[in-house]
Each structure stands twice: as C-alpha cells, then as structure tokens.
Amino acid sequence: MERSNDRATGEPLGKNSQVGRLMKIVRQTNISLILGVVLLVLLFIVSVGYVNAAHDELESSMFLNQYRLGSKALTTAVQSYAVTGDKVYYDAYMKELETDKNRDIAWAGLEANNIRKDEWDSMNEIAALSNGLVPLEQDAMAAVAQGDTESAITFVFGSEYRSTIQKINELTDITIEKIQKRLETSKIMFLTAQIVCALAFLIGFVWLVMESMRTIRFSRNELLEPIIKVSEQMSSLADGNLHTELDLVADDSEVGKMVASIGFMKNNLAEIIEEISLVLEQMGLGNYNVSIVKNYVGEYVQIKDSLIQIIEEMRSAVKTIKQVADEVDSGSVQLAAAAEDLAVACTGQATQVSDLMILLTDLSDSIEYNEKEAEEAVKISNLASSTLVSGAQKMSELQCAMQEINECSEQIIAVISAISDIGDEIDMLSLNASIESARAGEAGRGFAVVAEQVKKLAEASQSAVGQTSELIKRTVSSVEVGTRIANEAAQNMEEVQMGAEETTYRINGIVDKLKKEIEEISQINSGINVVAGIVDNNSATSEETAAVSEEQKDQAAAMVQLMSKFRV
C-alpha cells in the first residue's frame, strides 16, 4: 500500500496521521465530487439529447404531415378544378404550389432534422412519385381550360393517378412510421440514460453527503477540538504558565506530535527558566562562579550564549572592579595625605600671597608718589626749559647788541681818529696862527690869544680824544670779552637747553614708565587679588578635598570590603 509523505519533513506519515486521513477523505470527497459533476454533465447531456430527440420526432412528424397535407391539398385542388372547373380551385392549387409551398417547407425542415439515408431514399421516392403526377395535373388543368372536363377528370381520377396517390400515401405512412419509430427508440435510449444518470448522480450525491459528514466529523473531532485545546495551551504558554495540563495524548499523528512538542517545549522552557533564575540569583548574591549545564535548543542557544557571555564579562568586570577597588583604596590613602599636604601648602601660599599683596600695595603707593613727583619735576623742567629758551633768546639779543656796540665802537674809534686828526690840524693851525700872530705883532696879539686857546682846546681835545680812545679801547676790549663770554654763555645756554630738553624727555619717559608700571602694578594687584581668591578657594577646596579624600578613603575601604563578597 502506498503511503503519503509529510510535505514539510519528507518523512512517511503514520497510521494515526490526521494529514493522511484528511488527505484520504479529501481524495475520496474529490472523487465523489468529480463523479457527481461528471454524472451531472452526463445527465444534462442526456436530458438535452432526449429533448432534442423528442423535438426532432415532433418536428419530423409535423414536417411529414405538412408534406402529406401539401400533396393532398394539390391533389384535392386539381381534382376539384377538374370536376367543377371553378377557378377558385385553380387559384388554390397555384397558391399551394407558389405561395404556401408546404411541401418545400416540410422538405427543408426534414433536411434540418438530420434524416437518415434510408429515410431520405423513401422521401426521394415519394418526391419522385409526386413529381410524376405533375404532368397529369397539368394536362387536367389544360383540359379544364379548354372546357374538356371529362378529359380532365380522366387525368386526375384515372387508375394511374389514383394508384400513384395510393402508393405515395402508403410510402409516406411507412416513412413516417419508420422515422417516428427511430426517434421513439432514441427517446427511450435517452430516457433510460437519463434515469441511469439520475440514479447514479443521486447515489454519488448521497456518497458525497456521507463523505462531507465524515469530513465534518473528522474535522471536529480530530482537528477542531485538538486545535482549540492546543490554542488554549499556547495561550497559557503565552501568559507564562508552563504548568497547565494538556488533555491530549502524544502519538505519531500531527496533533500528537504537536502535543509532544508542546510538552518538550514546556519542560525545556521550565528547565531553562529554572537554570536562568538560579544563575541570576547566584549572580545577585555575588557569586559569578556559575555555569550553564542545561540543553538549550534552537533560538534558545542565543540566550545561552548571551548568558555565558554576560557571566564571563561580569566575572571579568568584577575582577577588574576588585583590582581597581584595591588600587583606589591604596590611592585614596595617598590622595588623603596629598590633600592634607596640599591644604597646608595652600594655607601657606595664602599667607604669602597676602604679604605679597601688602608689599605690592606699598610699592604701588610709592610708585604713585614717584609719579606725582616726576610729574612735578617735568613741570619744573618744562618751566626751566622755557626759561632757558627765553635766556637763550636774550643772550642772542645780547650778542647782537654787543656786536652793534662793537661796530659802534669801531665807528667811534674812526670818529675819534678823525677828531685826533682834526686836533692835529687845529694844533697845526694854532701853531701857524701863533707864528702868524707873532709875525703880525701887536695886531695879531688877539689872534694869538685865540690861537693859544685853540691850541689849548686842541690839546684838550687831543687829551679827551686820547682818554676817549682809551675808554673806547677798554670798552672794545670789554665788549670783546663780553662778546666772548656772551658767546660762551649762549653756547652754554644751548647746551643747558639741550640738557634740559633731554632731561625733560627722559623725565617724561620716566613718567610714562611710571604710569605704565602703575598700570602693570594695578594689573598685578588685580591678578594677585584673583590669585589670592584662587588660593583661598584652593585652600578651601583642598580642605574639602582632604575631607572628601577621607570620605573616599572610607568608601574605598567599604567598596573593597563589599567586593570581597564576590566570588569569581
């Protein structure tokens, strides 16, 4: 017996497999459905065939009767016309032949109804017999037209015409009976097939209903109820309840395999959760010397790997923290000692900075006083420089005046020389006048007195000129000395002025430097104030640091004691 395979795993399905049984039921149901459809189609075809057969029988009978009636109408019309000569019958004959054409219509209808060959042979024989009557009928109508009714009656009531009509009727009856019998047989065959198909379809429908009920019962008992129970179990698992009992038996069926898988999953999850809880509990107690021993399957292997990695990393981290704690404990002691030293040093620095601020304040005051004195010296130097400039100008004017005096003295010397020459000439004139007065005698006595007086005046002039010349020489000599002294004084004044200007420039430079030093001292003072604040802050901070270091020392000791509880 051929066994089905599981499409997911490719393994053979067990005898209890819901899939196998459902596939069998579905296969039987499909067969029933296909048979039912086939039977329904056959029933439809047979019903259509029966209807077509009945329709063909009816139409064939109708067309044969129509053909017979058309022939009888022609025969009756021609015989009545031959007997009576009434044109009405002639018109009826022509109407049937040209307008009604019942025989032509019946013939076309029979052609459409698929008449068999032997039946067509009979119909062709009937048509040939009917066509054989046409000449007799035409002769009868021609005789009636000529008024020869007896001849006309002979043509249409003679033995030839009557025997042909009888033969046509007999052949027509036989043909109709043959066609009707054939069509009746077809009807019976189609009816029988219809009944058989209907019974088979009924049996198939009952079988299909039974298979459907079987499928419904199987689906309810074997699929729906177990699926509901499994769904409830999975809902409990989704809520985290791993201890709910599943009222299903594990076997080789799909639901049984699902039950076995759920049981395995519940047990495996319970063991995994129990182990993870125990490991986490030990880790919470500080014991990192733990290991994973349970069997993790599928995606749970990632949890196992992650947990192992967490344990290893936590173990490494705790080791590192313990080492760091020891180092922090050792460093905290050194830090506390260093903080105390730093506090003492900062306190000393604060005292030194305070003394330095006092010294800088005194130095700033001294520099400010020197600046003021330098500014006063600059003012005095500027005033002296102005005075020296003015004295230099006066000395320059004095030099000019001494130059003019020297020039005037030279002019005076020239004038005195001229006066001396005049005195010599007057003396010569006085001598000549004395000589002439002596020559004149008594008449020239008065002239002699004048000459004497002129001589005395000339002598006095000479004497005055000599004194004046001596004074002028002495004046010129003094002027020369004064000019030399004035030149030296002017040169000294220029040097003094240059020295005063240089002194003023340097004093101004000193003042600028003092101002700059004052600004720098002010900045230094501000910086020292900031440094003092920082030193004070550092002092306070160092004291706080010392306190924090002591506290950190205690905390480090506590951490070391705490880390000693961990086992790695």
Summarize the structure.
With 568 residues, the chain is an all-alpha fold. The protein is built from 9 helices and no strands.
Number of strands: 0
Q: Biggest sheet, in brief?
A: none
Q: What is the element string, with H for helices and E for strands? A: HHHHHHHHH
Which outline best applies? elongated
Oligomer: single chain
Helical/strand content category: mainly alpha
Mean pLDDT: 74
The number of distinct helices, counting runs of at least 4 residues, comes to: 9
Q: Report the helical percentage.
A: over 70%
**Rg over alpha carbons:** 84 Å
Residue ranges: pLDDT <50 for 5 or more in a row? none
Please report which band the strand proportion falls in: under 5%, 5-15%, 15-25%, 25-35%, 35-45% or over 45%: under 5%
**How far apart are the termini?**
64 Å
What does it look like?
With 568 residues, this protein is mainly alpha-helical. Helix content is 88%, strand content 0%. Helix 4 packs antiparallel against helix 5 (149-157) and helix 6 (159-238) packs parallel to helix 7 (254-284). The longest helix has 141 residues, at 300-440. The model has no long low-confidence stretch (mean pLDDT 74).
